Amino acid sequence: MAALLVMLFLKEAGTLFLAMILPLTLAALPTSLLVADHESGWEQFVGVFPLSKGKIVLARYLFCLLLIILVSGLVLALSLVAHAIFGQYSLELHLIIVGVGLLFGILYVVVLLPFIYSFGTFGNTIVNIIFLALIMGGGYALQKTSFGVTFITWLTQVNKVLLIIGTVLLLLGGTLISLQASIMIYTRTFTA
User: Fold this and answer.
1) Which end of the chain is more exposed for a tag (fewer CB within 10 A), N or C?
2) pLDDT tens digits for 21-41?
3) 121-166 confidence digits (pLDDT tens)
4) What angle do CA 75, 106, 146 make, to 5 degrees?
5) What's the pLDDT band for 63 if we cut at 50, 70, 90?
6) Who's near 142: CB < 8 A, 6+ residues apart?
7) Global pTM?
8) What's the longest Cα–Cα distance across the chain?
9) From the CB of residue 98, how many other CB atoms can be counted at a distance below 10 Å?
10) What percent of the chain has pLDDT over 90?
11) CA-CA distance, 192 to 190, in Å (whole number)?
12) Distance (Å, rounded) from C-alpha 78 to C-alpha 6?
């Protein structure tokens, strides 16, 4: 309901904002899940289940990633409706913003989960500081150096399909590395 109100009052700019902010908001879900696990005493019962610790960690990854993908799909549908109604921005801009929101949401979860398993809820603070530094440093580098112009020129000239495939492969590789690290940390932390 709130998303529809944002779309009605802010038009397409509101849906573009939602496309960026909703996946990132949901990406912080592992912190809430960890707090709920700790308060309910989940760590005490995890050893009794006939599931390996790797499957438990994999389930957490799949839940968080699928939730971000689902919300990004809903925001994409909302963006398409807003574009059809208002037509203020190009369709390509909507697709790019939804894709970037999805990418940042997944990247945040992939980086956050190993830190959560390693440092508890303080891992969220560490990841927020890392992301803030990367975003500020990246923004500064794009604005103040010639790298920004070179990078943007390269993005406009590269084959979009290859760029998407390369990004997905890099993200998949990073996710697998993150998953293995999380399994190792979780197994070490919660040995029965």
Assistant:
1) N
2) 888 888 888 888 888 887 887
3) 888 889 989 988 988 888 888 788 777 778 778 888 888 899 899 9
4) 95
5) very high
6) 148, 151, 152
7) 0.84
8) 58
9) 25
10) 32
11) 6
12) 11
Lowest-confidence region among 2-16, 128-142, 166-180:
2-16
DSSP secondary structure of the chain:
-HHHHHHHHHHHHHHHHHHHHHHHHHHTHHHHHHHHHHHHTHHHHGGGSSS-HHHHHHHHHHHHHHHHHHHHHHHHHHHHHHHHHH--S-HHHHHHHHHHHHHHHHHHHHHHHHHHHHHTTHHHHHHHHHHHHHHHHHHHHHHHSHHHHHHHHHHHHS-HHHHHHHHHHHHHHHHHHHHHHHHHHHHHHT--
Q: How confident is the model at residue 7 (pLDDT cuts 50, 70, 90)?
A: low
Amino acid at 189: T
Closest CA to 97 of 20, 155, 165, 14: 20
Structure tokens at 82: 């807003």
Domain ranges of the chain: 2-189
Question: What would the two tokens of residue 179 be?
Answer: 């998953």
Q: Token pair for residue 54? A: 């790797």
Q: What's the CA gap between 182 and 174, in Å, rounded?
A: 12
